[in-house]
Each structure stands twice: as structure tokens, then as C-alpha cells.
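Quick sanity check, Laccase:
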Amino acid sequence: MGASVLPSAAIFGAFFLQFIVLSLHLEPVLGITRHYKFDIKLQNVTRLCHTKSIVLVNGQFPGPRIVAREGDQLLIKVVNHVSNNMSIHWHGIRQLRTGWADGPAYVTQCPIQTGQSYVYNFTITGQRGTLFWHAHISWLRATVHGPFIILPKRGVPYPFPKPHMEVPIIFGEWFNADPEAIISQALQTGGGPNVSDAYTINGLPGPLYNCSAKDTFRLKVKPGKTYLLRLINAALNDELFFSIAKHSLTVVEADALYVKPFETQTILIAPGQTTNVLLKTKPHYPKASFFMTARPYATGLGTFDNSTVAGILEYEQPPNKFHPRSSVEKHPLFKPILPALNDTSFAMKFTNKLRSLNNPQFPANVPQKVDKKFFFTIGLGTSPCKGNQTCQGPNGTMFAASVNNVSFAMPTTALLQAHFSGQSYSIYTTDFPSDPVIPFNYTGTPPNNTMVSNGTKMVVLPFNTSVELVMQDTSILGAESHPLHLHGFNFFVVGQGFGNFDPNKDPKSFNLVDPVERNTVGVPSGGWVAIRFLADNPGVWFMHCHLEVHTSWGLKMAWIVLDGKLPNQKLLPPPADLPKC
């Protein structure tokens, strides 16, 4: 008996050692579970010498940074301590089979009510890069947002030189008034909402605004180093140009997907988009500082915040006996030159430079065949004024916005719950038009009738349907660029152009080899964009303009992707703590 004990122990020990080694090797593949807690509370914040109480996460503005690795599971408990209903969207996370964690209020969940909590439970599958999270109800994302950084699996390098340092830069908008009151008033009067009072970089407006020199983001760098800037546009209503004086930027990623690197002086980034750039600093101390500025790319006829946010790029001064670090020297401060506010030509040229890597490690799996084609018009319109009053929209009407002339009516029950339970009656219909009901000259002289229809209409797609969608801007109430965001998917931008889309001519120039893949794309002002994606994620997925005012006016719709036949092709059941309406 005694002789058999030692070999058994040795075998167990060897097995245990092998298990530990195997576990260490598996850790990068399986990932780990990361826990976060978001406490939603009011807190006083001062900007532009104006103090007000705003809704924040964990008292931070912008909110806390989430950092995870590809393959990690995240459990993020959101506790709502404010009177506003709340929901959080993890923008760009695909949420494979976990649509319950996607976040848009009344689409995938009922909002988290005062005093209630919800744990968002999801796994990051096949994604790495820069994304962000934000509130997805009304205009609360003005202050409730933050970076979401996904690192590659352990041991997997970036497909570009390793940076000396990584720096998130999140653009936002500051309103002296309450954004919730601003949109509430606009929806009541039918007019356009008041614009923001400043743009911000990492929550700070910078020295070009009144009373804000002390509230300036400063990036201190060393000469001869490469920095990875993780750019995020969390502004409510404005696409932005961004540049750093006398420095070029190398674009390496868009919407958490690697791209073929290219150099540029200026970045265009729309709300909902992220862009990673490499900044290579000057080889020697330049005895100068440099503004990094952002201002709007504006194409519509409405008012907008025509101001500029600035941060400062500062070089560390080399210590020596002649120039000790403690000495204060006056150095020139250079300003970059940004494109004109309405430079649509620059916008088109910049977006055309974005191409997928399309290499063996990061292939561009563009759907080569298409099962279903859609043509959506995207633009503004009007709705009749309620009652006998006169509204502040065009000709006494109310501003509206629509997709294929359907202005989306938000339900009072979450669409995903209605779909999953099979209780869609009186909540939504599945007759969203695949094409405009009444074709017209979309970018020419607008029709006399600018009224939109209203409804909670959806498109149903069988699992694994390959989709081609052309989105066409319209000149009704003026041509305008619209950043469209699709939840639950990345898509390939296979083509874009100005004027009306020509179904006979334009598809011949589609890029089906290395188009950029992303989750938010700008529909060009007075033009069109074509995307392709594979409907391989069951659930209900929101698609909307990421200009918050247009979403509020109804420029949104939703897709239902049905379950597949296999167990791993079916939507998971709802969690027990899913909020109730």
C-alpha cells in the first residue's frame, strides 16, 4: 500500500504542474473576468466660470476608463442614484449573442430606474482597439461617457511600432445649460435646440474660451518618441477636424479595426467614431509649444457651435546647467491650420484613404455575394404642429428626421424583450420599407411635401444574411453629413460618392478587396455611402444618426436578426436582473 502512494502523488504533482502551465498558456486565449462598478450620481462641475450639477459616473468627467483584453469577460454593475432613467451603451462592442448588454434604452433594455442597478455581462470576442461607452437615453451622454480600451491578447503585438506611451483623447461638448432641458424644450417647440457653449478635450475647454486657461489639456512629450493617441469623438452633435501644429499624424486604426497606415496633417472624426494615430515627436527639444485644436465640420443649414477647443503639446525640457528644468522660458506657441468649416472635399478625400489591412492575420472578410439589398434615404423633414399652435420649425411645423421617410417612434417596452417573448403585437411592425416608397431627385430640388411618416417599423433578417445597404443623403431642408452607427456589427464601407446613387453604374467601382471596416460611417453631404455586412448576430440592433439632435427627431431604425439553427447561433436568454419598464 505504502509503495503506491509516492508515484500517485508524483503523478498528481506532475499533472497539476502541467495544468498550471496549460492554464498560463490558455489565459490569453480565454481571457479573464474583469469587474467594474459605475455609480451614477450628480456632482458640481465648473467650466467657463459656470458651475452646475451634472450627471457623472464615479464622479469623473469624462467617465472612468475601461481597460480590457481581447477575450476578456466584463461584468459592469451600473447603479443609478439620480432621478433620470439611465442606460449605458458599450459603443462598438459586437455583443455576440448578448444583445441584452448592448444598452440603448427601449431597444435592448428598459432603462435603469432611480435606485435600481443592472450588471452588463459580455465578452469581448475578436476585437481590439479604441472604443468608448456612453449613456444611451435622451442627451445624458453629454456628460456620461468614457474611453473603452481593448488591448490585444497577451503576447500579440500591434501591427505598427510599439509606442512609448498611449494617450486617450476624448472630444466632448460643454453646455452651460442642462442638455436635458435643451432637448426637451426643442421637442416641445419643434425648433432646433440651443448649441453647446464649448468643445472639450478630456473634459477641458482650453485657453481659447473665456475663463478657461487653467482648464487646458496638456500633453507632455519627450523628443524622438512615438505616442499612440486614441482619439474618441463623444460630442453630441458635431463632426470635428483635429490637428497638431507642425506635426503629422499616422492613422493606424478606425473604430477599433486596424487600417493601412497613412500620414495626414488633419483628422476628421464624427460623433461615434474613434481613430488611433501615431504621433512621432521631433528629434530634438524644439523650444516651442504647439496647439492641438479641434473645430466642427459643419454642412447643414442649422446653427452650430462655431468655436475651437485647444490643448497644448509641450516638450520636456532637457536638464542642463545652462537650462535647468526649473527655469521659465518664453517659447512660441504655434497654431495648426484646419480645413474650412464646410470642406466636404477634404472629408471625402480623408475617408477614401481609410483601407483595411487585409493581411493573413487581419483579413477583410467582405461579403462577395449579397442576399438582400436595401436603399435608405437619410435626412431631415417636418411634422405637423400639435394642436392649433404654431411651432418653430420650417413654416410653423416641427423639425423631424427619418430613414426612408419613416421617423422612428420609440416604444415604451424594450424591443428585444418583445421580440424574444414573441409579444410584438402593438409594439412594433416588421414592414420597414427596403426602398423609398416615393422615389424623387434626392439631392436635387426638394419636393414640396416635406412631411415624414411615423412608426416603430423594423427589418427582419434571417441569420447569416449578407446585406448591402446604400444610404443616400437628401436635400430636404438642406444636404448634410450624417454619421450613421450600427449596433451589433462592424460593416465594410465598399463605396461612396456625391449626387444620387446610380444602381447601374456605381456598384462597378465598389471596393470589395480592402474597404475600411467600422461601426459608424458618415453619409456624405449631398451624396451616398454603400456598406456590406453579414447578419451573424441574433438580436435586435439599433441603427441611428450619431448627431444626437437627429436621433431625437427620429433618424433611427432597428434590425431584427433571427436565431440560426445551431445552439451557438441563438440569442442567449435575458439575465435575471434585466430592468423592467
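Posting the structure with no commentary besides this: The longest helix spans residues 2-30.
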